[in-house]
Design a protein that fits this description.
Helices cover 34% and strands 34% of the residues. By secondary structure, the protein is of the alpha+beta class. It folds into 2 domains: 164 residues, q2cbj1_9rhob like domain (Jelly Rolls); 41 residues. The strands form 4 sheets. Strands 1, 3, 4, 5, 9, 13 and 16 form a 7-stranded antiparallel beta sheet that branches. The protein has a 5-stranded antiparallel beta sheet with strand order 2-6-14-11-12. Its cofactor is L-ascorbate; Fe(2+).
Length: 213
């Protein structure tokens, strides 16, 4: 799938990325993106969503209730996205989506461009600079101040999307993700163990208590 995305995006027509920004984000955004609503954007976006539905780590970590249509962005030399926070509620063709979690899927090999790190400033998470291998994804609370550092060489391709989670609170999501990971490890060792049953009981009882559905 990664190769197909890279091939299709290599020759695709990109437009000014500010068309999807609002408020202060519009002032600090300087990139291009695949035209939202275009046939290619819809086709590739649906392919990404179909793939994510089958990625256990994605589902376990985010507990998605609604997911925005993916956007495909490109940064070339001199482009960046200044420090900003994402809109709390996104107005989409599918209706409003509360942006609990933001996710960036890196599509360019990190050695193919210089700069362009995703930089996150968060009181709870600390400051982070992220530049991952092509095909890797990074999800983080959409409440975080973040930016894309200036690209000084090459071309940075990425896919970005937002998730409205069944669990609003990031601390509660982390607890459920940890329990889910523990259950997976126990299942590998002994799918009928009493320990697994207890972990799953705790997971589902907390999910029942916290879920916003």
């Amino acid at each position: 799938m990664l190769k197909e995305l890279q091939t299709r995006l290599a020759t695709a027509e990109f437009v000014d990325g500010r068309i999807t920004a609002s408020g202060n984000a519009r002032i600090v955004k300087n990139n291009t993106q695949l035209a939202p609503g275009s046939a290619l954007a819809d086709e590739l976006g649906e392919a990404v969503l179909k793939h994510l539905r089958n990625v256990h780590d994605f589902v376990g970590a985010t507990l998605p209730q609604r997911v925005s249509r993916p956007m495909f962005s490109a940064y070339t030399q001199g482009m960046e996205y200044g420090l900003h926070v994402d809109s709390g509620v996104l107005q989409t063709r599918q209706g409003p989506i509360r942006s609990d979690i933001a996710m960036t899927i890196f599509l360019s090999p990190p050695e193919s461009y210089e700069g362009g790190e995703l930089q996150i400033e968060d009181i709870g998470l600390g400051n982070h600079r992220i530049k991952l291998a092509a095909g890797s994804a990074f999800a983080y609370p959409a409440t975080s101040l973040h930016r894309v550092a200036p690209v000084t060489k090459g071309r940075r391709l990425a896919c970005v999307l937002w998730i409205q989670s069944q669990i609003r609170d990031p601390g509660q999501r982390r607890i459920l993700a940890d329990l889910d990971a523990a259950a997976n490890k126990l299942r590998e060792h002994d799918p009928n163990s009493q320990e697994l049953k207890l972990v799953l009981a705790s997971y589902h009882n907390l999910l029942r208590l916290w879920a916003d559905t």
